[in-house]
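Why should sequence recovery work at all? Because a backbone constrains its sequence more than one might expect. Tight turns favour small or flexible residues, buried strands favour hydrophobic ones, and helices have their own preferences. The token representation captures these environments compactly. In the example below, the structure is given first.
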């Protein structure tokens, strides 16, 4: 605004000066015609002309000088005595300034000096002059082409223009100050309006850090803030889920570890309460106690495996492994378990596969998948394991003819201690940690695992692992 107002004021000043100069030139031209008509320029005194010259000088707060073609001053409103008719010896004042010389040569000029404008303008008459003028030799014909008989020098004040411009600048400055004040006030108000949603987001995050997950952010405004609020709400939901999972995990761990101990205590108390119990009863109770101890040991081992896999900086012992041979060894170990229920293990290998993997962790992951396929299968069922590869990955598919997984819980099966059928899991000795361990082991290999299942029709797990380990 300051630059713009400065440009406007400068242009106005220049335009006003141009208009003033144009008006002065028009007045000088009219005055020149009167001077020629009255023969004032030819040494004839004329009080009317002198009065008009004085009035014009006072009107423009300046000075008017009339010079004839011989550079003699005929009139000067600055009270310099002019040359009088018939008295060439007295009052002879000449003006041979550059402006006069230029004007008598036919070239008018105008200059602005400070708060004054100076004009030099030729006085012209008709080409054919009267005899009086010719006899007095005051006009030069110059081969019939020159009709300049004198010059008018006008110095006029333009202080009123400058006063107007200064007034405009003052008003503009006040307007700019007012606008700046209004902009500052509006900016302070609007910035507060804009920051309010962020303050609410910040407060919500503070509440989350304090453990409160009930609050949700609802913001109506521009798109970016709405998107940010939605993202924060998603983060809150996720944190709430993680917190719920953590609490459930702690509860499940406590429950799973406590259950075998409770069973052992009940069995031991029962033995102690029966004095003189037969040896067969002791063996039966001790067998049950041994099973509970084994169950406790399995839970602890699974928890230790999960903790090791959860470490982000977990060590990976990467070696080049023949995946075909690895699967054969796993199946050899698990066939006796499958044969107790007459479940057939089928292995299909489409090509030899050599990959860079951690053999122990991958064995644990695939063993869990095949063991689950056996545990949650029907008697006389089947489990099919297939191995294939392309130029980047190898794929292990474990399919079974078992009970399947309901579609609405398939997103939760990789959570710790989650079990679709808790009663059946306890019967089969499941802890709910196997698939979580499997998923973590696969992810540590930068791989992926997917499940496809339909209730009572079986389940298929597909594992994809890079052939070359990506650190």
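From this structural description, the recovered sequence reads:
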């Amino acid at each position: 605004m300051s630059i713009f107002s400065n440009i406007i004021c400068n242009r106005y000043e220049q335009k006003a000066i141009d208009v003033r100069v144009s008006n002065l030139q028009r007045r000088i031209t009219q005055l020149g015609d009167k001077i020629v008509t009255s023969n004032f320029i030819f040494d004839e005194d004329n009080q009317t002309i002198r009065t008009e010259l004085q009035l014009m000088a006072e009107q423009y707060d300046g000075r008017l000088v009339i010079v004839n073609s011989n550079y003699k001053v005929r009139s000067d409103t600055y009270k310099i005595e002019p040359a009088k008719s018939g008295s060439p010896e007295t009052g002879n004042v000449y003006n041979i300034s550059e402006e006069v010389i230029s004007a008598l040569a036919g070239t008018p000029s105008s200059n602005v000096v400070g708060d004054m404008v100076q004009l030099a303008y030729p006085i012209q008459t008709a080409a054919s002059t009267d005899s009086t003028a010719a006899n007095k030799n005051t006009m030069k014909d110059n081969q019939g082409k020159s009709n300049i008989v004198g010059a008018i020098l006008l110095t006029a004040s333009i202080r009123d223009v400058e006063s107007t411009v200064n007034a405009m600048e003052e008003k503009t400055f006040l307007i700019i100050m007012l606008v700046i004040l209004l902009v500052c006030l509006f900016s302070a108000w609007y910035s507060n309006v804009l920051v309010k949603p962020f303050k609410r987001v910040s407060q919500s995050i503070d509440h989350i850090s304090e453990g409160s997950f009930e609050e949700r952010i609802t913001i109506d405004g521009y798109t970016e803030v709405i998107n940010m609020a939605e993202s924060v709400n998603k983060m809150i939901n996720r944190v709430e889920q993680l917190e719920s999972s953590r609490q459930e995990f702690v509860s499940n761990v406590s429950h799973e570890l406590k259950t075998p101990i409770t069973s052992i205590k009940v069995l031991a108390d029962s033995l102690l309460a029966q004095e003189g119990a037969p040896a067969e009863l002791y063996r039966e109770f001790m067998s049950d106690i041994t099973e509970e101890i084994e169950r406790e040991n399995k839970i602890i081992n699974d928890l230790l495996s999960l903790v090791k896999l959860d470490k982000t900086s977990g060590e990976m012992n990467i070696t080049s492994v023949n995946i075909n041979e690895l699967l054969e060894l796993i199946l050899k170990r698990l066939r006796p378990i499958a044969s107790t229920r007459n479940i057939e293990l089928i292995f299909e290998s489409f090509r030899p596969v050599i990959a860079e993997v951690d053999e122990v962790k991958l064995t644990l992951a695939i063993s869990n998948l095949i063991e689950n396929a056996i545990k949650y299968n029907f008697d006389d069922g089947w489990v099919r394991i297939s191995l294939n590869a392309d130029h980047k990955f190898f794929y292990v598919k474990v399919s079974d003819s078992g009970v399947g997984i309901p579609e609405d819980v398939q997103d939760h099966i990789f959570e710790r201690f989650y079990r679709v059928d808790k009663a059946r899991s306890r019967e089969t000795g499941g802890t709910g940690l196997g698939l979580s361990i499997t998923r973590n082991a696969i992810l540590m290999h930068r791989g992926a695992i997917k499940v496809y299942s339909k209730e009572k029709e079986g389940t298929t797990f597909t594992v994809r692992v890079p052939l070359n380990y990506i650190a």
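A few observations help interpret the result. Residues 85-90, 127-145 have pLDDT under 50 and may be disordered.
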